[in-house]
Amino acid sequence: MTLIDVEKLKVDHPLLNQLIALEEVCWFNPAVTCVSEALPYVGLDVQDIQDASDRLARFAPFLALAFPETAKTNGFIESELVDIPAMKQCLEAHYGTEIAGRLMLKKDSHLPISGSIKARGGIYEVLAHAEKLATEAGLLSVSDDYSQLYSDTFRDFFRQYSIAVGSTGNLGMSIGIMSAKLGFSVSVHMSADARAWKKQKLREHGVNVVEYEQDYGVAVEKGRKEAEKDPRCFFIDDENSRTLFLGYSVAGERLKKQFEAQGITVDDKHPLFVYLPCGVGGGPGGVAFGLKMAFGDHVHCIFAEPTHSPCMLLGVHTGLHDAISVQDIGLDNLTAADGLAVGRASGFVGRAMERMLDGYFTLSDQHMYRLLGQLAQTEGIELEPSALAGMPGPVHVSRDHDYAVRMRLDQQKMRNATHLVWATGGGMVPPEEMASYLAKSGVDIVS
Ligand SMILES: *Cc1c(COP(=O)(O)O)cnc(C)c1O
């Protein structure tokens, strides 16, 4: 491991002083460029997203059977897109900033099966692996009806194989529950910050939960080492997986259809701003890639991170990507935001996506809690703290004059804008836990 000269870095990148002081920051990357110039760096294209989309369609009949809660969407795992006008007013009043355009929420928090954005990538990767094993064994062909996977024959087949993953909670939930349902024996290696109720739920599904005292990075490393010993074990690598990334990316075309159905235009005169909470980067990176492929340069993606874990901002801003961690600059990587307590960003995602991402901002845990209370109060929607990380995004965009000028976002366009906050989790939080979140918000909730 190379030694990081923090003093020198601070001179070259003064923003680091603010990160180290745990100040909330916002940085719009001046190196952002158009899709056509940025795409070659991703190494994936629309055809890869189409393959993922087709694969999910093949599995839909299986999912509708195995998870009856997905039957009403015919086995497609998709979330609602809703307006949150009262929250918009609340933000404007609280920050004293007018937000031009419309504010919406993408409720991945309420995705079936695992109640978080991980129901996109995590589940997709398990399905892709299952399909590969079954087709290679001659038991399945892509033209078959995949509802047959919901059978003892296939469960007995998959039982010979295992799946392992390192997780702070939500990824483990998605991969654990889906793997167990197919019949795999599955181990989830969990970091110290993982919630007790998530471990409990996984154990109820027959998942082997291995607990560690250390953080996410350690859980991943231990999980990877365990899996290496067993050739029949597949390790899902959250940090570098293209498959996971593509599972998330299908959200782009899905959102496009939802906008069309609701009569919402996204084009040169109607920009779309999407605010995505970022942990290791695969989820927001994959979704942002899908959005760019669906809406081109008319969509602007902005990542949000906790002040204690700004790994992606740090990696992209310094250009060091996964060669630097938040611990290297003295931060503790401790946050109440599940899924966002990541010290070192994915090098793959940072390098692939940096030219397509407009900006990054951080916020404190207390800030997330307050927004959690305000959303519950104004809209009656309850999320977990991490899912609120994107919420200040429209305020940052509305305030930054230089950014608006550079991106040629005039007032007329901004009045036609849609701001979409990606709510990434919370749908399965037990009521007692939610009550304690609400209590921490400092907001009086009148019901
Ligand atoms: C995992 C997660 C994220 C971020 O996804 P990454 O792929 O780790 O960047 C955001 N919010 C929640 C609730 C998550 O579980």
Automatic annotation (TrEMBL):
<dbReference type="InterPro" id="IPR050147">
    <property type="entry name" value="Ser/Thr_Dehydratase"/>
</dbReference>
<dbReference type="Pfam" id="PF00291">
    <property type="entry name" value="PALP"/>
</dbReference>
<comment type="similarity">
    <text>Belongs to the serine/threonine dehydratase family. DsdA subfamily.</text>
</comment>
<dbReference type="InterPro" id="IPR001926">
    <property type="entry name" value="TrpB-like_PALP"/>
</dbReference>
<dbReference type="InterPro" id="IPR000634">
    <property type="entry name" value="Ser/Thr_deHydtase_PyrdxlP-BS"/>
</dbReference>
<feature type="modified residue" description="N6-(pyridoxal phosphate)lysine">
    <location>
        <position position="118"/>
    </location>
</feature>
<dbReference type="GO" id="GO:0016836">
    <property type="term" value="F:hydro-lyase activity"/>
</dbReference>
<dbReference type="GO" id="GO:0008721">
    <property type="term" value="F:D-serine ammonia-lyase activity"/>
</dbReference>
<protein>
    <recommendedName>
        <fullName>Probable D-serine dehydratase</fullName>
        <ecNumber>4.3.1.18</ecNumber>
    </recommendedName>
</protein>
<keyword id="KW-0663">Pyridoxal phosphate</keyword>
<dbReference type="InterPro" id="IPR011780">
    <property type="entry name" value="D_Ser_am_lyase"/>
</dbReference>
<dbReference type="GO" id="GO:0009097">
    <property type="term" value="P:isoleucine biosynthetic process"/>
</dbReference>
<dbReference type="GO" id="GO:0030170">
    <property type="term" value="F:pyridoxal phosphate binding"/>
</dbReference>
<dbReference type="InterPro" id="IPR036052">
    <property type="entry name" value="TrpB-like_PALP_sf"/>
</dbReference>
<dbReference type="GO" id="GO:0036088">
    <property type="term" value="P:D-serine catabolic process"/>
</dbReference>
<keyword id="KW-0456">Lyase</keyword>
<feature type="domain" description="Tryptophan synthase beta chain-like PALP">
    <location>
        <begin position="97"/>
        <end position="393"/>
    </location>
</feature>
